Amino acid sequence: MPLSNTSTVSRLQIAIASVANHKVPILSSFKTMKFGNGRCLKISAAKTCKNHNFLIRSLVGDSSDPVRVDVPFPSDYSDLLLQAKKATELALEDDKQLMEIEFPTAGLESVPGDGEGGTEMTESMLLIRQFCDCFIKPEKASRTRIFFPEASEVEFARKSAFGGASFKLDYLTKPSIFEDFGFVSKVKMADRVKPEDELFLVAYPYFNVNEMLVVEELYREAVENTARKLIVFNGEIDRIRSGYYPPFFYPKLAGLAKNFLPKMETVYYIHNFKGRNGGKLFRCYPGPWKVMKKVNNTYVCLHEQEAMPSLKEVALEILPSA
């Protein structure tokens, strides 16, 4: 995708909203460029100072072009969970009904596959418990149903991360006699849901392709056209968005990409890109999608836009051009 309307800038004006021991980059030389539907910063020099929320204004002649960085990249998982909590609360205030939270669990710099599959799921379970504890009010816990991929995960959760919790724990699929060949039995969602349920949280439904199909069924039969809410937590939905599963062999998943995923609001999201042109795709609702890169041990926003860019676009076009 060609870049245009390039202007060289050598000054920045930073208005500090608060101070909270965060390292914030001061860019002493950069270019601001149009890139598709967003804007991109091309950095040539930077230094850091300690700030929190801030507003960058590039000065070109008599005009000003604001680039707002509302939420800094999280410094650790405690910071991440607080950001995800606030993003979800704001989405609920805006009447969002179907939501996604997605971030790496083997470290904030990791990508899917860096950790062993079972370990990543266990880490997700622990983080989901922490998220629930800070997001869900105690009086609402018994009205919150958390779905794990299968019944064995529910038993493990009850004996570990969710021991003693008041949340209702449930499952999406159950083993069949053909489990060794990758087949599982679907659980009819209408039979699992109870009238008093208000919030459904689905934990990492990505190991088996049937799991996301059951999530869609849950939404269609128990959430859509009701006051209930549904959050998919670390479902690796990018596999479906990107066409990882060939439509010819997985026509139902292709249907999800076309008819179900567009209804979903991604309220919190981190995806890492490794390699020479590495970086991050970051979103915290209601803010824009940001492509970020580490400069002098901190993160700067290279590009932002309102709609989610594809991972291919970020990896092959946006990051290499910055």
SSE topology sketch:
Blueprint: E1 4-9, E2 12-16, E3 22-35, E4 38-51, E5 54-60, E6 63-69, H1 77-93, E7 98-102, H2 117-135, E8 144-150, H3 151-159, E9 168-175, E10 184-186, H4 189-192, E11 199-203, H5 209-223, E12 229-233, H6 238-241, H7 251-260, E13 265-273, E14 279-284, E15 289-295, E16 298-305, H8 311-321
Helix pairs in contact: 1-2, 5-7
Characterization of this structure:
With about 325 residues, the chain is an alpha/beta fold. It has 8 helices and 16 strands. The strands form 2 sheets. It has a 13-stranded mixed sheet with strand order 1-3-4-16-15-14-13-7-12-11-8-9-10, sandwiched between helices. Helix 1 (about 75-95) crosses helix 2 and helix 5 (about 210-225) packs across helix 7 (about 250-260). Residues about 1-35, about 40-70 and about 175-180 have low confidence and may be disordered.
**Largest beta sheet, briefly?**
13 strands, mixed
Strand order in the largest sheet = 1-3-4-16-15-14-13-7-12-11-8-9-10
Percent range for helical residues?
Answer: 25-40%
| N to C succession of SSEs | EEEEEEHEHEHEEHEHEHHEEEEH
Average pLDDT confidence is 81
> Beta-strand percentage?
35-45%
Distance between the termini: 13 Å
Q: How big is the Rg?
A: 21 Å
Shape: globular
Number of strands: 16
Helix and strand composition category: alpha/beta
Helical segment count: 8
Indicate the low-confidence ranges by residue numbers: 1-35, 39-69, 177-182
Which key phrases capture this entry?
322 residues, three-stranded antiparallel sheet, globular, 16 strands, 8 helices, 28% helix, disordered N terminus, 13-stranded mixed sheet, alpha/beta
